Amino acid sequence: MLIKNPKGWQISENLATPERHYLGRRAFMGGMAVTGAALIAGCDGGGDAVAQDENTQAAAAASDSGLYPAPRNEAFTLDRALTDEEIATTYNNFYEFGSHKRISRNAQALPLSPWDIVIDGLVEEEMTISFDDLLRAMPLEERLYRHRCVEAWAMAVPWTGFPLAALVNFARPLSSARYVQLETFENREVASGQRAPGYPWPYIEGLTMAEATNDLAFIATGIYGREMPKQNGAPLRLAVPWKYGFKSIKSIVRINFSENRPHTFWENVGPREYGFWANVNPEVPHRRWSQATERMIGTDEQVPTQLFNGYAEHVAHLYETTNGENIYY
Ligand code: MTE
Fold first, then answer.
1. Where in the sequence is the domain holding 42, given as residue range(s)?
2. Could you tell me if the CB of 224 is within 6 A of ligand 1?
């Protein structure tokens, strides 16, 4: 297959779209929505209003399921205020639906039912399980996590879900498995971004087995005490808060165990810009911008970035042997 990689500058411009442009426009459109909702419904600017509406409907359905809200795990709380729900659900990175932040409306085209997840590779028995069956087999809890994008913005998000370790356990990997590879759906009919040239779909991410079974690695199925909205990665996505957000792959359809390190999506797109490890580190700048500080979305507050995004006590031990490679990056 011929893969045309976009040039480095194209990638990072997209990845680094300054949110003030978006928020400024969004605030403007929000003002319009009050006076002219019907007028904007069919145009680009109406997307958020429509998505919010759909979120509300999804939330009502989810509360009927009795699964949300789930009990909070008090071991994972935060020393910063939660990001406003409306911001976290309308300011998104989900390249399958566009290389900008305002994909929440486009993402509503993603069909969620049926949703099957293939578990294969180095496992005792390969299987395909429906999301509903998987959900029934997993204990749900809520955790408040920092969420830090490689673009130097940050949020604080209440995820609902279950430890990735529980899913690994359920999958029964062989002792020869060294990596977990996670894969997003591929559906060019609904995902306009997958019709655009230049990206090596499907989106793939990976962790070592030690990372995947670390207590912090979480599979999120909900957010803000509700079922996961499509734009945030429904029906299930990863949350690995000590790593840059691009590791937290959305809308997972395949979990593969292997001996070999996965070739991840962003590594394939820009190997000099986005590494496999992607651990948050204030001292390792991105090739074109500093990672020393981060900006809280919603308040614009600039705060110092913390090593491992503040989770060093949970994960630093995973990276003590480096065989010469800078695996903090
Ligand atoms: N997963 C898929 N499949 N496609 C993507 O484009 N973007 C990543 C990550 N997971 C992405 C993805 C990036 S760059 C970030 S910062 C987070 O999702 C954003 O998650 P959020 O929109 O819930 O904040």
1. 13-319
2. no
Q: How many CB atoms lie within 10 A of CB 174?
A: 11
* Greatest CA separation for the chain: 61
**CA atoms of 93 and 14, how far apart (whole Å):** 10
User: In this structure, are residues 108 and 230 in contact, taking their beta carbons and an 8 Å threshold?
Assistant: yes
Q: What is the pLDDT of residue 315?
A: 96
- With a 6 A CB cut-off, is 101 part of the ligand 1 pocket? no
Q: How far is the CA of 280 from the centre of ligand 1 (A)?
A: 16
| pLDDT score recorded for residue 183 | 98
Residue 285 and residue 263: Cα distance in Å, rounded?
Answer: 22
* Residue 60 located in a structural domain: yes
Identify the residue whose C-alpha is closest to ligand 1 atom 16. 245
Q: Whose CA is nearest to atom 4 of ligand 1?
A: 94
Indicate which residue's Cα is closest to atom 22 of ligand 1: 92
Give the β-pairing of 293-296 and 153-163: parallel
Q: Does 214 or 24 have the greater pLDDT score?
A: 214
Query: Higher model confidence: residue 269 or residue 25?
Result: 269
Q: What is the CATH classification number for the domain harbouring 259?
A: 3.90.420.10
Q: 98's torsion region: left (phi>0), alpha (psi -120 to 50) or beta?
A: left
- The set of residues, in sequence order, having a beta carbon less than 8 Å from that of 42 and lying 6+ positions away, is none
Q: Is the pLDDT of residue 53 over 70?
A: no
